[in-house]
């Protein structure tokens, strides 16, 4: 199963001016639409940003599927004291050992482990702060011929990245995320959902 790398976060004040252009609702909406399009059809790989992991968890829950082996969450042990509670719900978490007293070095180590995966066939960038540029540069270094989707309407660092990449102005406000993901990622709306083992995803009964 091909994998999609998700790079996303909700910008906050105090870390650049990315928050000024960011729309948290659209960030959540875009993440949700990606999960809806790809869950069980492509492996979804992302780093454990505390604002994004709950979004992924909520979107997975609403689909009512057994997603334990349809996602891979990467987390640096540098942040072990502030892991989101939702980490416990995912069955496939890769904990990357941190570098003592080195936040940026620990993040870089985790990003290298995550983005150097050989099964990544696409990357989706949503919202974000300074980490977006770092992860974009690392992704295109390791995967120069794969699909890269900067989702610009939610703002944040991705919008700045898209301008640098030459995305046409008329495309910057595109909020038809479902169409965007299905088309760019080559996922048909009726494509079956499967687990990593190739078996159909099991529907879970809500209580």
Q: Report the structural category.
A: alpha/beta
Q: Which runs of at least 5 residues are low in confidence (pLDDT < 50)?
A: 202-207
Rg on CA atoms, Å: 16 Å
Total number of beta strands = 6
**CA-CA gap between termini:** 30 Å
Order of helices and strands: EHEHEEHEHEHH
Number of helices: 6
Rough outline: globular
Helicity level? 25-40%
Please outline the helices and strands.
Layout: E1 3-9, H1 24-38, E2 43-47, H2 53-63, E3 71-76, E4 93-96, H3 103-115, E5 120-127, H4 130-142, E6 147-151, H5 157-165, H6 177-185
Parallel strand pairs: 1-2, 1-5, 2-3, 3-4, 5-6
Helix pairs in contact: 1-2, 1-6
Distinctive features:
alpha/beta, globular, disordered C terminus
What does this structure look like?
This protein has 207 residues and is of the alpha/beta class. It has helices spanning 24-38, 53-63, 103-115, 130-142, 157-165, 177-185, and strands at 3-9, 43-47, 71-76, 93-96, 120-127, 147-151. The protein is globular, with a radius of gyration of 16 Å. Helices cover 34% and strands 17% of the residues. Strands 4-3-2-1-5-6 form a six-stranded parallel beta sheet, sandwiched between helices. Helix 1 (24-38) packs across helix 2. The chain contains six helices and six strands; from the N terminus they run βαβαββαβαβαα.
Compact summary:
The chain is α/β, with parallel strands linked by helices and 207 residues long.
């Amino acid at each position: 199963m091909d994998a999609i790398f998700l790079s996303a976060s909700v910008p906050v004040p105090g870390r650049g001016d990315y928050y000024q252009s960011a729309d948290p609702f659209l960030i959540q909406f875009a993440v949700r639409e990606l999960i809806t399009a790809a869950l069980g059809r492509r492996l979804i790989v992302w780093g454990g940003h505390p604002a994004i992991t709950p979004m992924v968890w909520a979107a997975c829950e609403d689909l009512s599927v057994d997603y334990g082996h349809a996602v891979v969450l990467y987390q640096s042990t540098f942040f072990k004291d502030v892991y989101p509670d939702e980490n416990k719900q995912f069955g496939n978490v890769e904990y990357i050992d941190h570098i003592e007293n080195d936040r940026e070095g620990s993040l870089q180590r985790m990003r290298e482990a995550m983005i150097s995966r050989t099964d990544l066939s696409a990357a989706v960038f949503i919202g974000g702060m300074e980490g977006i540029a770092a992860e974009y540069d690392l992704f295109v270094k390791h995967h120069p011929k794969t699909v890269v989707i900067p989702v610009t309407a939610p703002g944040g660092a991705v919008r700045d990245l898209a301008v640098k990449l030459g995305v046409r102005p008329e495309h910057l406000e595109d909020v038809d995320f479902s169409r965007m993901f299905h088309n760019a990622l080559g996922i048909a709306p009726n494509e079956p959902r499967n687990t990593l083992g190739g078996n159909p995803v099991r529907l879970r009964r809500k209580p």
